[in-house]
């Protein structure tokens, strides 16, 4: 797609399942932490709920102006990261919280964001307008740090060789430069469907937007925000995110008995569970995946808030 062309609309993922988990209706206040193209919010509004939508991308908020008018006072938008939602709205002020993680189709398909290896654009990758860009990171970080980002967040086995090639080619400013370096280093096996640059672009995007830190803080914010009986629904798209959601719900529902290899066991006198044991994770059906390939890797985890107070202790994934 050429720069400046209109990006296709975002198709909401697992919309029916998310609405089933959140049960929007008259008198329900839903916080949509990832407003994006507003697919979830419009469905909740149509069911009679009131919605507060967060998005860290000022362009997503600006594009939603007509939604605000159409909602006739039932939709409020906030341009901020979802980790700030409890601080902004106050504790126990929401009946439901939705998080649909990652980037929207509009962001992915607009070269100006620099998120895709499919078209040339500035090496930016920020969803919002603040903080260092991907180019800043790649042009200033040490080779070891770049390798660590690619390995940890992209599970890229050639991380060290790619990092060395990046450092040798600095300064970088365009997505095409990065994509070419990765493709040259990794090579493309015949018949391989996935572009070799996929993992490196994912890793950098997660790093630039601190997506895993935002998720951990966002889950704790949802815990504070939800009323007893309030409902949380989180749709994630890769195993690093899903693992954080799974661990959070296991810990806060009292299911973690021994802690993981990386964490100490739950203290003997852990706070009372702030969530009921979560439902089994759900995945999209074959028909949705056929209609919307972006849904392919989606996992929905949902849970209901208990009456216990939010835990004082920070959630450390
Ligand atoms: C997958 S899209 C959401 C799509 C939305 N559910 C819909 O139906 O149109 C994710 C959106 O969340 C935003 N986003 C991602 N992480 C965020 C965060 N930590 N805080 C606020 N917004 C975030 C992105 O800018 C993007 O617009």
| Shape designation | globular
CATH topology (level 3) name of the largest domain: Rossmann fold
| Low confidence ranges | 1-5
Spatial arrangement of strands, main beta sheet? 3-2-1-4-5-6
Mean pLDDT: 93
CATH class of the largest domain: Alpha Beta
As for the number of domains, it is 2
As a whole number of angstroms, the C-alpha radius of gyration is 20 Å
Bound molecules: S-adenosylmethionine
> What is the H/E order?
HEHEHHEHEHHHHHHHEHHE
Q: What's the total count of β strands?
A: 6
Strand content: 5-15%
CATH homologous superfamily heading of the largest domain: Vaccinia Virus protein VP39
**CATH-defined architecture of the largest domain:** 3-Layer(aba) Sandwich
Helix content: 25-40%
DSSP summary: helix tally: 14
Specify the biggest β-sheet: 6 strands, mixed
Name the structural class: alpha/beta
Distance between the termini: 38 Å
How would you sum up this structure, described in words?
With 317 residues, this protein is of the alpha/beta class. It folds into two domains: 15-106 and 211-304, Vaccinia Virus protein VP39 (Rossmann fold, 3-Layer(aba) Sandwich), CATH 3.40.50.150; 129-208, Putative methyltransferase TM0872, insert domain (DNA polymerase, domain 1), CATH 1.10.150.170. The chain is 39% helix and 12% strand. It contains 14 helices and six strands. It has a six-stranded mixed β-sheet with strand order 3-2-1-4-5-6. Helix 2 (39-46) links the parallel strand 1 and strand 2 (50-55). The relative contact order is 0.14. The structure holds S-adenosylmethionine. The site of S-adenosylmethionine has 22 residues, from helix 2 and strand 2. S-adenosylmethionine binds at residues 10, 12, 33-34, 36-40, 54-57, 60, 81-82, 100, 102-104, 127, 214.
